[in-house]
Amino acid sequence: MTKATKTLNNLGQSIWLDNITRDLLDSGTLKRYIDEWSVTGLTSNPTIFDHAIKNSTAYDAAIREKLSKGQSGEDLFFELSLQDLTRAAALFRAVHQRTDGVDGWVSLEVSPLLAYDTASSLAAAKSLHARAAQPNLFIKIPGTKQGLPAIEEAIFAGVPINVTLLFSREQYLAAADAYLRGVERRIEAGLNPVIGSVASIFISRWDVAVMEKVPESLRDQLGIGVAKRAYKAYRDLLGSPRWQRALNFGARPQRLLWASTGTKDPKASDVLYVKALAAPFTVNTMPDATLKALADHGEVGATMPADGGDCEQVLAQFAKAGIDVDALAAQLQDEGAKSFVKSWADLMAVIDSKSTALKKAIAS
Question: Which region, left, alpha or beta, applies to residue 100 given φ > 0 means left and ψ of -120 to 50 means alpha?
Fold first, then answer.
């Protein structure tokens, strides 16, 4: 019997792991996910690295080494993360080559403190991309109002971008427009228009936000409704004259990525979002628990309809229940940016405390 992970991959959806730890690499677990569960990419964020470094001694030797070279804080963290992501990128290199750069990507986020700073986001993206020197590394920039110009400029500069913290169709379309502007400028300048990018729409946070505010009949349906609406916009964009022109010059579409697809509702299926979001030419980045559940007992049902299916009827029911989807999208993006800032502060505190403890150990 074909595993659901393989079925999803055969359908044309890429499965990426939403996690990175040194233990995952050292134990061979990530390689096993690739070989056995059709995982073809990986994403990281400040929260993931915070947990990885806080809950493991696997980084201590590397931290000690960086301290001896005078590195600390943010600079030390990016050295650690680039070590992990370089190893992960090497594991996905065969996929990247086989798919001619469509798949096989890993992602590293710029400092969340820059979410509302265009110039610094762009400078950080260029710097991290140059430091990594990996052909299959995305730099993550939030799709905030200030992030959009940085995304356009980064694409124009040839830096592959994972646009993060998108929550609605409108936020997605703004990110896609920024990407396409960067590509069009490359075409006009006579440059190669093939610069990789994905646009990451967060799903489960919608349902967490409204769980106590809507009738039981609407429970766990908002995230999927928003995703279907965005998928229709994505498919419409790919068929638009503007995109067709860019594709004719050799450009590649910016793929739509489903993020935050672990089920948060204990009453719901642990593969709720995976099953609902099965769609060709998209990515689903899922945490370990969701990936394991899919491999163990998941099943892939009908693919998402290109016309959005019943999404407008479902979203109309939420409007009747008093949910302003546009206002909530802005709120969720703002809260998402703030939560990454908190994780970043925690991460810097962990780096600092570990550094202090290791320095004392060396001194004694």
Answer: left
CA 168-174-176 angle, to 5 degrees, is: 100
Whether 35 and 6 have beta carbons less than 8 Å apart is answered as no
Interval 235-262: pLDDT, tens: 999 999 999 999 999 999 999 999 999 9
Tokens 């409704």, located at residue:
225
Query: CA dist 290 to 5, 52, 298, Å?
Result: 11, 18, 9
186: which residues sit within 8 A by CB, 6+ positions away? 155, 156, 158, 192, 193, 195
Report yes or no: 179 and 199 within 8 Å, Cβ to Cβ.
yes
Q: Find how far residue 319's CA is from the centre of its chain.
A: 28
Provide the annotated active-site residues: 140
Nearest to 107 by CA among 3, 198, 171: 198
Structure tokens that stand for 219 in this block: 């429970």
* pTM given for the model: 0.97
